[in-house]
Specification:
By secondary structure, the chain is of the alpha/beta class. It is built from 15 helices and 10 strands. 53% of the residues lie in helices and 15% in strands. The protein binds zinc ion. Zinc ion binds next to α10.
Length: 350
């Protein structure tokens, strides 16, 4: 076992209302004067203008500004190649696609990266990986954790409810991910990093204690998702953040006619997997209930047939990745749960 690992953590973390208006100050304090801004295409222009005004106030020159509407390796490498000379920092502003593109381009350029998410729909903004497609195929590429994480809780609170539910769904998945990790240790000798597992577990408990959709609740969710990124960095793997519930969601992405938000799929799969694992079910159901997650799913139910196919395919998504789905053929149990579980009633059609 490797026990002497070098890890990176963000040097600056600001999670509070009004943080976006202070973005320029954060760069100025770090003595960065020239930055590239990569924002989501279609992002509310007032947010872009707030960022630009703040940078201007603090004499930070935006040497390049790009709007990104996809998350591809090709785009990230092209951006990296085009960074103007003198660039000292890269800012990613908006949703997951722009942030992953900016994170990877900054990594290639060895530039400090400021992650400024405007919604908290998953834990990707602070992870040491970028989810990009390469030649049309989705890849999870290793890169650096952001140098700075700036979450304006007032901005994130304004994001649509579905993004909030998705963020909570991705957070709660740590309950089943950690259980799968421990299972993999006992059954297949997978290396468990105790500190990362503990950290990941603790983030869920912090949020569960107060799952309210207000400024403090958004702050807790942002903190928890960020710490999950750090847990991945500490363990050098995605294990603290991702288990069989993520395998099901990834498989679903390939079979479904209409993929939904990552955390909506993952949150539902987490509940399902907890039933298979025989642990955590009540806690997971309670949190998802408290934030209105199931209301969102019932308003636009999943297809039962697609989910059964996804569960069948899930163990093949990541060969050698031991989870509860490896222990037995779970398909008959899942079919039964989808038919009879009271929490999942009206969450599936067909
Ligand atoms: Zn996730």
């Amino acid at each position: 076992m490797q026990i002497d690992t070098q890890i990176t953590i963000p040097s600056l973390v600001r999670i509070k209302p009004g943080a976006l208006e202070r973005l320029g100050l954060y760069l100025a304090r770090a003595e960065y004067r020239q930055a590239v801004l990569i924002a989501s295409a279609g992002l509310d222009d007032t947010l872009v203008q707030t960022a630009l005004r703040s940078l201007d106030t603090h004499d930070i020159r935006v040497v390049q500004q790009t709007a990104v509407d996809d998350a591809t390796f090709e785009r990230a490498t092209a951006l990296f190649a085009d960074f103007p000379p003198g660039t000292q920092a890269v800012i990613g502003l908006g949703g997951g696609k722009a942030l992953d593109t900016a994170k990877y381009a900054a990594f290639l350029a060895k530039q400090p990266y400021f992650a400024v998410p405007t919604s908290l729909s998953n834990d990707g903004f602070g992870s040491p990986q970028a989810s990009l497609t390469y030649a049309g195929k989705r890849r999870s590429l290793a890169c650096r954790i952001p140098s700075a994480i700036v979450i304006d809780t007032a901005v994130c609170l304004q994001a649509p409810d579905a993004l909030w539910w998705s963020g909570v769904g991705d957070l709660i998945s740590k309950v089943t991910a950690i259980a799968d990790w421990k299972l993999a240790f006992h059954a297949a000798g997978a290396v468990v990093n105790d500190f990362a597992a503990l950290l990941s577990d603790a983030t869920v408990f912090q949020f569960i204690a107060r799952p309210a959709h207000d400024l403090d609740g958004v702050g807790l969710l942002g903190t928890a998702l960020m710490l999950n990124g750090i847990a991945m960095e500490i363990s050098g793997s995605s294990r603290p953040a991702s288990g069989s519930e993520h395998l099901i969601s990834h498989a679903l992405d390939t079979v479904t006619a209409r993929p939904r938000l990552h955390g909506l799929q993952v949150g539902t799969a987490t509940y399902l997997v907890s039933r298979l694992q025989g642990q955590g079910t009540a806690r997971i159901a309670q949190v998802l209930d408290a934030v209105g997650f199931w209301r969102g799913i019932r308003a636009d139910p999943f297809s039962k047939a697609e989910w059964l196919e996804a569960v069948r395919l899930a163990p093949t998504v990541k060969p050698g990745f031991y989870t509860i789905l490896t222990t037995r053929d779970c398909l008959p149990e899942v079919a039964d749960i989808l038919d009879t579980d009271p929490v999942l009633a009206e969450c599936f059609t067909g």
